[in-house]
Amino acid sequence: MNIVDYIVLGCMAVALVVGILKGFLKQIFAVVGVFVVAIGTSYLSPYPEQWLASVIENDSTRSLVALIATFIVLALVYGMVTALISKLVNKVHVLGTVNRILGAVLAVAVVYLIFAVIIGFLLGTSETFLPNIKKLAHDAFAESWVANNIYKNNFFGDWLVQLLGEKIPSVLPA
């Protein structure tokens, strides 16, 4: 085992512990929350902007204040709702256990996918793209147990490199 193995396995171990502590629902709620709060802010910020018209005269300042206030309120409400749902699920012992196991699986899967992309980019890019880093990465991955066993058939990383290769032909090989 070399440094690549220790980095990947260490990140997976940390993800496993964090996934168990946070649980599946909190992780999913966090991802969904980014989109819900962003979309909600874009739709709802015109209302406080109208209310602030008598208080703030400058249009851009009023718009910014309304946007920030709407974002904060929606984030707080979303956080309270998700915390309540998570507490209710964790009170039922069986559901709480399943939630934590699925949280661990999800967290490790996310780390796996992140490293799949990193390995795909480091090994799948053209020779002219960061040649020194590419040589170091190739040498390190050639000796890595994780890269040769877990990422032997790196479908996700290879697919992403191929997809981006069509968009950025100068960096990625065709």
Keywords:
transmembrane, flat, mainly alpha, 174 residues
Can you tell me about this structure?
The mean pLDDT is 85. Helix content is 82%, strand content 0%. It has one domain (3-167). The chain is built from seven helices and no strands. It is mainly α and 174 residues long. It has helices at residues 3-44, 46-51, 59-91, 93-124, 131-142, 145-149, 155-167. Helix 1 packs across helix 3 (59-91) and helix 4 (93-124) packs across helix 7 (155-167).
Report the span from N to C terminus: 32 Å
Characterize the main sheet. none
Overall residue-averaged pLDDT value: 85
Shape: flat
Radius of gyration: 23 Å
Order of helices and strands: HHHHHHH
Transmembrane segments: 6-21, 28-44, 64-89, 101-123
Keywords: Membrane, Transmembrane, Transmembrane helix
Organism: Candidatus Fimimonas gallinarum
InterPro entries: Colicin-V_CvpA, CvpA-like
Task: Describe how the helices and strands are arranged.
Layout: H1 3-44, H2 46-51, H3 59-91, H4 93-124, H5 131-142, H6 145-149, H7 155-167
Give a summary of the structure in a few sentences.
By secondary structure, the protein is an all-alpha fold. It has helices spanning 3-44, 46-51, 59-91, 93-124, 131-142, 145-149, 155-167.
